[in-house]
Amino acid sequence: MEQKPPSPAENSAAAAPSSDEAKPSLFPLFPLTASSSLQTTTTSSTPQWLSNTSFTTDISVINDVVASQLNRETMQSPLQDDNDEDENRAQANPVPSSRYEILESSESDGGGRDRERKKRKKRKKRKRDSSAERGGFNAFGSRKSRVRAWVDSEAKVAKDYYIDSHGDRDNLAFGCIYRMDIARYKPYNPLKLSGLHVRGLYWWNRSGSLLERDGDVDALDAKMKCAGRYWSGKYMALERHKSFKRIHLVAPKLSPVTMQDEFIPLSESDAGASHGAVDSDSVSKTSASLEESWEDEMLNKTREFNKLTREHPHDEKVWLAFAEFQDKVAGMQRQKGARLQTLAKKISILEKAVELNPDNEEILLCLLKAYQMRDSSDVLIARWEKILLQHSGSYKLWREFLHIVQRNFSRFKVSEVRKMYAHAIEALSASCSKHSRQVLQAANPSSPDPVFVQLELGLVDIFLSLCRFEWQTGYRELATALFQAEIEFSLFCPPLLLTEQSKHRLFEHFWNSGGARVGEEGALGWSTWLEKEEETRQRVMNEELSRENEGGGWTGWSEPWSKDNEGIANVEHETMNDVVMEDIQDEEEYTEVEPEVDTEDLLKMLGIDMNDGDGGEVNDTLTWIKWSKEESSRDCDQWMPVRGKSGTTSPANEADKTDEDEQLLRVVLYEDVNEYLFSLSTTEARLSLLSQFIDFYGGKMSQLFCSNSPTRADNILSLEDLPDSMLEKLKCIHEVLTKQQNSLAGFSFEFLSGSLSRNADIMKFIRNAVLLCLTVFPRNYMLEEAVLISEELYVTKMNSSNGMITPCRSLAKSLLKSDRQDLLLCGVYARREATYGNIDHARKVFDMALLSVEALPVELQSNAPLLYFWYAEVELANNSANDRESSSRGIHILSCLGSGTKYNPFKSQASSLLLLRAHQGFKEKLRTVWSSWVRGIINDQSVALICSAALFEELTTGWDAGIEVLNQAFSMVLPERRSQGYQLEFLFNYYIKMLQRHQRQSSLMKVWESILHGLQIYPFSPELLKDVVEVGHYYTTSNKLRRILDDCSYKKPSVVLWLFALSYEIFKGGSHHRIRGLFEKALANDKLCSSVLLWRCYIMFEMEIAHDPSAARRAFFRAIHSCPWSKRLWLDGFLKLNSVLTAKELSDLQEVMRDKELNLRTDIYEILLQQS
């Protein structure tokens, strides 16, 4: 039997006599041998930071305590057998020497291989045992360095340097410290060990303590996974345990008396401690009050919420916070039954809140969302209908209800959803009529009621949702007809005192008359058409009366009609009918009887056999690809409703008859649109309808809504394609991120770009419609800009070789001829000329307009600041001139505005006197603007004046003076109002642009902080998100930028934010797992899961970048389940996923599309006929 090594007590006893001779430092340079490990004397050269007054040199005292602890531990340890084996192994394999030695070369004789193999086994065994006994850094995995020297050690070594031959490759793989390489500590110490004993740590590790190996997560053994502090189930369960107490650091609340004093007095315990008298009871009570388990917290919070709800029963924030706390409680419960009980408690809380606050929409929405988590779809719809009967005038409730009905895949049918939209519009229209009568009866009907305005704006938003729903389900003619009907009905209603029923009867006559509607050539508007019709009718009646009056004299004899004559006529008519019928029968007898072709024979001719057992399905994938392409092409072309023609001749052949049937399907009757018509009386709602109509068809218009507006958020959420403005910003990010590196597989968002703006017919339709609506909104520069841009796009598509002539020049001149006093039209037209490089022509237009300002009425002169500001921006943006000349021209223009002098075209630099007058004039004008802003009057003219003053200070004094003007403007507005209105958002974007122009002088940090501050105010702004990605790419690290975007997505999730976050990762070449995680996180949101845009982007990422068709297939089926109304999404399965979907699956997809009542324009048999 082998001799056992001496015990630690014996070693310490043996080393005691020599304790005064030499002692190594506390942290050795090399692993200590059996003899050297017991020398514990200290030297004078010990570093100061190693000195410890509590350190003792009596090793026997420490070892006795440790040994007693280990004896108790080993009696309970189930690893006693392993202990004996380990001791035997430790004696057989001594600790290796402290120096590295060169290995001997392998022998070349016949037994060399066996000896070499034995040596390798011994070395591995020695290394494994030594690493286990050391318990130091080498126990943290084989990936770590073999360097064993301590930095502060003073021991002499043979080498002055070491080569790290086993470095940590994770730093290269992950770009940072690997997450498993962090220190993991035990939260409490049950053994109360006071020293670090090697054998004690060995037993402690073997018995399941937390000082485990910190290897890679894939290489962890079962004990590591179950005993790790941060990732193990053991401590996760401990953290989630109800009785596990935590210490909460709570700031002490000062008493009201203390707040009035000029100093903060010490507490009693602190005062006592300062005088040396510490009360242990008070300290324990104070510490005990801060210790709180989850169960205690839940009880305390519930008690607090109960008190608040009793004291403030009508405070919705208290009730909503109480309900949100129940979600937190449910998140801490494992059992499903317990979570359901908590959900039932939440529902009872919200039901009590609704009982006390029956008209609160936020509490109702929260209650209905709680019902959605518990009830089935049928029960949930019934609950919604019951609540909507009681709150039929709430557009928020109707909007949420329509989203739920539209997203429900099992119940989804186009006709059912269309019926719900009809109910919503009818209810909201009745509520608007009721409010309108109340406003008319009010004492001051001239000022619009804000509640009434919001109600009409909500009605317009729901109508736009209906039009987008019809467009996306394939009924594009119906969507266009709805727009035409509503614009005619609400904007061009005849000025007659009519009831709603009479208006509908008159509009039906207009709709069925065949007159041109809005957007069509020759359209006059319903009111003008009715006047023309009345004039025509009066003229015809007058002609008939004059003809009757002119007639007279002898008209000749007339034989009276008798019954005998009537009988003779009837006999002759019957005889003629008999003759005709006989002729027809004779012709039928002589006509060759053609055999009737059976349907099965026709299908066999097309290559389909009904008897094969496949049900006549098309088994060729290429056929389905051709069908989907033809269907997409027809969707793009067939968007305008066709007029029904009465009195047409019968078709000549069967093909013409088929074409006529298809045309009849595209006819929109009055019965198809009459349920969705409503009247609008406020200017805000009418302008909102028209602006959203322009945006719907891809037109370009100045920003009318703030990015925080729910209208804008809903429009972006319902998009299938990216608008051009958003696509341009994503292209800018692509250019910035790919200057130094290549993006993933050349990926871009071009496949999501819409094709509406590239359709010349649609641009012509927008131009005609807006030109007609300018009669309702005269001198509206936003609409004038939209009509000029539509004319440009239309002319460019029709004639691409137009040279340097601005495409909208002829239309702009014709508009100016009709209204020469329209200053803003001159400015819009001059800006379009400058866009095409015609700066001289633009200057002529600007000069002409500014020279005529003084001759205009006062109300029109108020638009002059906009004109001056546009002119100065055009001059400064002119790249053909040098910077000095453009600055001089800009200063001259702004000086005329600030000084109030008459404008003169630029000839030379502005004089010092003129500059001084301009400075003083801008100060006075700004004081007037501040006074109006304090009263809440913020308009485009005042914002243009502020921007002009800031630009003037920037050009003359310096950029910091211009920034000061803008900061002063922001200080005049309350923080809660800054997030409302597009004017203030435009002003903030202008502020960021000025900072970016001078980022070298102002430092990039100033720009970065301002952008982040703006993102808190406007979290949905595409302009600010673009700046965040661009500036953050240069200023900060990728991880920090990701944290910022993740934080914003957690607080304010939106489609715009996720698009920019995804574009950053994709264009930067990020990890596929990171990008896929972003998609999943975005689509896990209740609202964003209905974004067709995000789903299409996800599918394209899986196909084009990840090259994972199976993942794209899974994403596609999830997408159509979340968005069953999007025909474009269904067709993506045919066009993009035809390589992973079989012909049987494609056939089933088409069948489901028909079952959901999506409009399919192409029959598959047409494609088969073309192929045959």
UniProtKB/TrEMBL annotation:
UniProt feature, compositional bias: Low complexity: 9-19
Residue spans of biased composition, Basic residues class: 116-128
Swiss-Prot/TrEMBL keywords: Nucleus
A biological-process GO annotation: negative regulation of RNA catabolic process
Database matches in Pfam families: NRDE-2
Superkingdom of source: Eukaryota
Official protein name in the record: Suppressor of forked domain-containing protein
Native organism: Glycine max (Soybean)
Lineage, highest ranks first: Eukaryota, Viridiplantae, Streptophyta, Embryophyta, Tracheophyta
